[in-house]
Amino acid sequence: MLEILYQDEYIIAINKPSGLLVHKSFYARDAKVYAIQELRNQIGGQHVYPIHRLDRKTSGVLLFALDKEVLKIMNDRFATREVEKKYLAILRGWSPEELTIDYDLTNDDGITQNAITYFHRLQNTEIELAFNNKPTSRYCLVEAIPETGRMHQLRKHFKHIFHPILGSRPHGCNKQNKLWLEHFELKGMMLHAHQLIFNHPITNEPLILNAKINEEFSRVGTILNLDLNTYE
């Protein structure tokens, strides 16, 4: 059963689990379960239309329209940046306290697009985990707000500033991922869409939807001595 965060006659939002595809994808032809079909079955067969996307490994708030008119309204609002998306991520190293990353990205069709991400650091941590001839390893928890919505934007942007997201494959640090797989059996990615802020497409009522972090994110937070109580 998917966790439903909000539902009315126009829109519905879920807390998407990590590992669940939003819909069928050429890049993940092995998958047999999708958020669209699971949610449709859960609410009695009503059609649902995804308004935005989350990567397969990314958990968190995922918003659907319940008819095509609402879908168009919300697509327009995403396009004009009237919707604010907030993500939590655990990064390798200690990032700058805050930064706006303005770094163009090239999509699968070879088209270069402007991409902008603002983030601020929430917590630093250091644990006794030897890496690169050092006795300890450093990580940080950040909140990221992408101003644009390019494919794999956050993963690519954090790799660009040499603070890749823990567990990201690709666009991560393969050596760190291997280290965490061997020591802590980590197979997930530490990226979670924890909040979506927008006005309701019909009533224009302000909405703030929050999604709790999953067990894997919480487990990694415990290993790293991060305080995640606010997000659990």
Automatic annotation (TrEMBL):
Keyword Isomerase in record: yes
What Gene3D superfamilies does this protein map onto?
Answer: Pseudouridine synthase
Question: Highest taxon of the source?
Answer: Bacteria
Class in the EC hierarchy, top level: isomerase
Database matches in Pfam families: PseudoU_synth_2 (PF00849)
GO MF annotation: an example: tRNA pseudouridine(65) synthase activity
Reported EC number(s) for this entry are 5.4.99.26
What function does this protein fulfil?
A: Responsible for synthesis of pseudouridine from uracil-65 in transfer RNAs.
The keyword Disulfide bond appears for this protein: no
Q: GO:BP terms for this protein? A: enzyme-directed rRNA pseudouridine synthesis; tRNA processing
Reaction(s) catalysed (UniProt annotation): uridine(65) in tRNA = pseudouridine(65) in tRNA
In its UniProt entry, the species of origin is given as Flavobacterium sinopsychrotolerans
* Keyword tags: Isomerase, tRNA processing
Protein name, please?
A: tRNA pseudouridine synthase C
> What InterPro entries does the record point to?
PsdUridine_synth_cat_dom_sf, PsdUridine_synth_RluA-like_CS, PsdUridine_synth_RsuA/RluA, RluA_PseudoU_synthase
- Domain Pseudouridine synthase RsuA/RluA-like: residue ranges: 11-160
